């Protein structure tokens, strides 16, 4: 039984570009790996997983921490006049990620009336289902969609024994894949070894590897390291370690009798973000990493009321409002009131 210490391990799947959908001849069902994505469930169903739209959240011992860039892409498409100012949106503003970090064929970003955004999404990704129900079509929304499919050229082997994964909650026996007891004379192992690069190695609890898929633009990085305080700091430390690595060329390859075992990762989650303080703010992340490759589908979206020109407008002051009196030609009011309750307002007479 293989052991992984979760208290000292952070796995990072770092996706940078796109690859076409490819059916793997050697896959068990002969289907594209995207068909193996898990069903989506509400984030409340994941009791020990945190989903955040930025990289500044604290990594808590014993809890998973998930980030995907789709919320940032959707947020950046929102006009400034529509934006809210909250701790979460300020973290989104600080996040360094843009559409320039992605291949243009891998994503869609749209802002405008909901029915127009839905129509444009369908033109870019005809098979993708629109993720928002119950809209009239006149609402204004910002929506980002990202799709990645990264199949391996050669399927890795499933582990012969379960991986004994150690976490703060105890030990779990997990399904895994990789190469066990690598042999330079075994043809299948030689093919699989071409899909693995060792980027940094200190000891069995402190190393970083890369798994190579068919996509030359994308990287799948896995790092078993001690986490820093935040995901941003952990990613930065991993990148620094890779850049400063002193491994010799032969050390970057699997050596005789070495084993690589990776747990199968499967996630399907919908996370709402009331912290953004908008009528609609959500993210959907579907991800799977297994012996066939990695696949990601994700939405990020924010929604508002109707756009101007979507029908009769409404000017009903039925929520807190500002009242001011100012002389024409002056920028300085001589009376200003913020009306937040009914104390200064006359009640209606009952019939």
Structure characterization notes:
This is Serpin (Serine protease inhibitor). With 351 residues, the chain is α+β, with helices and mostly antiparallel strands. The protein has one domain (2-306). The protein has helices spanning 70-76, 87-94, 114-124, 187-193, 231-244; strands at 2-5, 41-42, 49-52, 64-67, 107-113, 139-151, 157-158, 163-167, 170-174, 176-179, 196-203, 206-211, 220-224, 260-263, 265-272, 280-290, 293-306, 321-325, 335-339. A hairpin with a 7-residue loop joins strand 15 (265-272) and strand 16 (280-290).
Kindly list the characteristics that best describe this protein.
351 residues, 13% helix, 33% strand, elongated, disordered N terminus
């Amino acid at each position: 039984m293989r052991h992984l210490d979760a208290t000292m391990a952070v796995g990072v799947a770092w996706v940078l570009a796109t690859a076409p959908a490819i059916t793997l001849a050697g896959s068990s069902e002969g289907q594209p790996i995207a068909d193996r994505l898990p069903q989506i469930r509400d984030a409340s169903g994941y009791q020990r997983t945190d989903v955040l739209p930025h990289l500044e959240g604290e990594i808590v011992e014993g809890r998973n921490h998930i980030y995907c860039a789709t919320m940032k892409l959707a947020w950046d498409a929102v006009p400034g006049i529509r934006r809210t100012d909250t701790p979460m949106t300020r973290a989104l503003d600080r996040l360094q990620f843009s559409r320039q970090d992605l291949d243009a064929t891998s994503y869609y970003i749209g802002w405008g009336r909901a029915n127009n955004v839905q129509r444009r999404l369908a033109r870019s990704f005809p098979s993708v289902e629109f993720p928002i129900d119950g809209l009239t079509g006149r609402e204004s929304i910002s929506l980002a969609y990202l799709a990645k499919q990264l199949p391996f050229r050669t399927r890795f082997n499933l582990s012969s024994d379960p991986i004994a994964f150690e976490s703060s909650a105890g030990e779990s026996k997990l399904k895994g894949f990789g190469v066990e007891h690598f042999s330079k004379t075994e043809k299948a192992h030689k093919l699989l070894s071409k899909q693995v690069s060792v980027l940094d190695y200190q000891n069995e609890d402190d190393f970083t590897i890369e798994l190579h898929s068919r996509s030359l633009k994308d990287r799948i990085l896995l790092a078993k390291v001690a986490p820093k305080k935040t995901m941003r700091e952990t990613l930065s430390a991993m990148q620094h370690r890779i850049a400063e690595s002193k491994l010799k060329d032969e050390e970057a390859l699997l050596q005789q009798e070495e084993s690589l075992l990776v747990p199968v990762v499967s996630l399907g989650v919908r996370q709402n973000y009331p912290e953004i303080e908008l009528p609609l703010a959500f993210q959907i992340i579907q991800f799977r990493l297994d012996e066939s490759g990695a696949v990601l589908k994700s939405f990020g979206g924010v929604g508002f009321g109707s756009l101007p020109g979507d029908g009769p407008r409404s000017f009903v002051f039925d929520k807190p409002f500002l009242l001011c009196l100012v002389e024409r030609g002056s920028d300085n009011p001589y009376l200003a009131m913020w009306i937040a309750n009914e104390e200064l307002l006359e009640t209606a007479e009952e019939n």
